[in-house]
Amino acid sequence: MSSLLTTLAKDFPNIAxxxxxxxxxxxxxxxxxxxxxxxxxxxxxxxLLHEIGHALLEHQTYQTDFNLLQLEVMAWxxxxxxxxxxxxxxxxxxxxxxxxxxxxxxxxxxxxPTCTSCSLQIDSSTYRxxxxxTEWRVSRSRKCRTYRKKQTAKLPxxx
Length: 159
Known about the structure:
The structure is a single chain. The protein is of the alpha/beta class and 159 residues long. It folds into 2 domains: 3-107, Zincin-like (2-Layer Sandwich), CATH 3.30.2010; 113-159, no CATH class. The chain has 4 helices and 7 strands, in the order αβββαααββββ. It has helices at residues 3-11, 42-56, 65-85, 92-110, and strands at residues 16-19, 24-26, 31-34, 120-123, 126-128, 135-138, 157-158.
């Protein structure tokens, strides 16, 4: 077990920490999941601090795609705060690279399939273009690849 994990488990006994095949925070289970083998390198430690950040901020589900990006920024801010306490230095370029994946995902989802204008989300699964008034649906999953499928009778679907 990594020394950082041991210390975090001791300092935050109300947060369960469980080995898994990926790093993530489950608000329903109040558990931080981590990849045990990755904790021996700095990026793994940064990821663990990031997920602890979500837990400490009590992040729940997100309402909109932009809200998800906001939660990610807050979790990285908290991770940087924790890193100072635990004498870990998080590379700011790593944080921006991680946030870029969410920014790119958001941009793809918010781009109109008809005119390619960037638009705003009108509910948890629908976007509407201000330029041409096209509406399209998006999947709730943040891990799905973006697909644009225009349909004549239905809303276009983005997975």
